[in-house]
Each structure stands twice: as C-alpha cells, then as structure tokens.
Amino acid sequence: MKFIFNGSFFEDKNALFGSLNRAFLYGDYLAEYAKVSDGKILLWEEHYFNLMASMRIFRMKIPLSFTQEFLAEEIQRVLKENSIQQAKIRISVYRNADQDELLTKASISYLIEIVQENQNSEYYWNRNQAEIDVFKDYTINPSFYTQVNSHKPEEIIAVAYSQENEYQDLVLLNPEKRIARTLLGTPFIIQGNQVKTPKLSEGGIRSITRNYLGQLLEKSDEFTFEESEIFPFELQKSDEMFILVESEGIQSIHQNRKKTYDTRKTEEIFKLLNSNLV
C-alpha cells in the first residue's frame, strides 16, 4: 500500500515512519540513552538491563537476538560509520503493527542513533546562567509505568511554556504537589553538605546516571545523600541546585524566582562524577 508524505508517494514496507509504524502513530515505543567515552559505552550492562526491563513493562516481545553483545556491536557500527568516539546515543525500540497478531506477539524494530557528538570523554558541566520555575498547569503521574523513558505528550506543553518564558528547565510536580522531576532530568538540591533528590516513586524516570551518582555520593566522605520527598518550598531554602541529565552531565541552576544559587558544591560533585568513568 502506498501513501503520501510531504507530497511524495512511499510504500509502507519501505518507510520508516509509514502508516504501520506504531511508534509514529501511537507513541508505542521506549528509549534508552547511553554515553560513549573514547569509544566505550559507559555503564553498558546497567543500560542494557534497564532496556530489557522497560520492554517487559511494555509487554514487548523481546527478540532472541537482543543480547547485550549484539546491541553493543550495533552501537559500535553506528559510531564507526560516523567516525565518532565521544557521543550520547539513543536506542529506540518500538512495536510493529503485524497483521492479525496480538500486541504482545508483535515483532519489534529498533533504531540506534547518535543524539549528540561530545567534545571530550567526560560528563559535561553546563555552568551557563540558567533559571528554573515550577510548572503548575498539570501534575506528573507517579505510577510504576511512567518510570520508563517513553512518549509523554503532556510534557510537550511544558517544553513550549519553558521556551516561551525563556526558562532553561521546569520543575514538574506529582499529584501530591511534591517534586517529581524536571524536563531535563533529575533535580538535586544541596544545603550545606547534604544532597537530596526526589525518590523515583515520586514520578521520576529510571536513570542509570542518577543511580551511579547516588552511589558515588553515598560513598563520599564529603556529602550526605538522601532520596526523599521534596516540596517546592525547599528550593527556596537550598544553597545550590543542579539537574542531572541522563548520559550527559550536570546542568547548574542559578535562579528560581528571587532565589539565587551558588555552584561551589556542585563543582565538587561534578569532579566526583568524573572521578572514575566506567
């Protein structure tokens, strides 16, 4: 069957975004992001098992070929083809619209692409002036299923709002009016030597980099680390705030309304994050 896309005819079987693509039609897909440093996929085992767990949550039929070694080789093929050694890559997995098949029996397609090429092997620290606000137009569903990195159409509205108002990020709340996450990733607040981030059950998305930094902070002699329930008013009482962006690095926040933040402790945490790239 043929269809028209931007004035040209395409065959369904040959078109990546054809009328049989459930990712395009229904957002029936999920994604996993990973950082590549000097050609090495950092925390690859954790990323792989997170991808497999997400596919099981979505009741996708995992192909037998989807081994850890196979997907790593596919990533390396993409890197080699583009002559890139430092990058953030995305693995997208979506369900095909197989005819006369149940969704749980539908075959799977995958897409591996380079989201951005990095300049060096380390996690980055974006320390440019950045302002954040709390978004109150809607709340985040904190259910187990929303922890998967998948299509979340309501966040498109929040992105548009942040761009219109020139915010670098927005804090998203759960139905209890507590902090769930931000558009960019996982928020961390610092007061003295105490570092806090919202519990995953508050409405966060499972992040391998978040888990890794949490482990580093727990082992650190310089900081105390806590995953907890955080209300928006605590942003006004904190000394510093930053956002951890999955498989990228740290985005410093400098202002929330009239509150301004320092970055001295954030710099120490940034050094800790890059202290042992694995």
TrEMBL record:
<comment type="similarity">
    <text>Belongs to the class-IV pyridoxal-phosphate-dependent aminotransferase family.</text>
</comment>
<dbReference type="Pfam" id="PF01063">
    <property type="entry name" value="Aminotran_4"/>
</dbReference>
<dbReference type="InterPro" id="IPR043132">
    <property type="entry name" value="BCAT-like_C"/>
</dbReference>
<dbReference type="InterPro" id="IPR050571">
    <property type="entry name" value="Class-IV_PLP-Dep_Aminotrnsfr"/>
</dbReference>
<protein>
    <recommendedName>
        <fullName>branched-chain-amino-acid transaminase</fullName>
        <ecNumber>2.6.1.42</ecNumber>
    </recommendedName>
</protein>
<keyword id="KW-0032">Aminotransferase</keyword>
<comment type="pathway">
    <text>Amino-acid biosynthesis; L-isoleucine biosynthesis; L-isoleucine from 2-oxobutanoate: step 4/4.</text>
</comment>
<keyword id="KW-0808">Transferase</keyword>
<dbReference type="InterPro" id="IPR001544">
    <property type="entry name" value="Aminotrans_IV"/>
</dbReference>
<comment type="pathway">
    <text>Amino-acid biosynthesis; L-valine biosynthesis; L-valine from pyruvate: step 4/4.</text>
</comment>
<dbReference type="GO" id="GO:0004084">
    <property type="term" value="F:branched-chain-amino-acid transaminase activity"/>
</dbReference>
<dbReference type="InterPro" id="IPR036038">
    <property type="entry name" value="Aminotransferase-like"/>
</dbReference>
<dbReference type="InterPro" id="IPR043131">
    <property type="entry name" value="BCAT-like_N"/>
</dbReference>
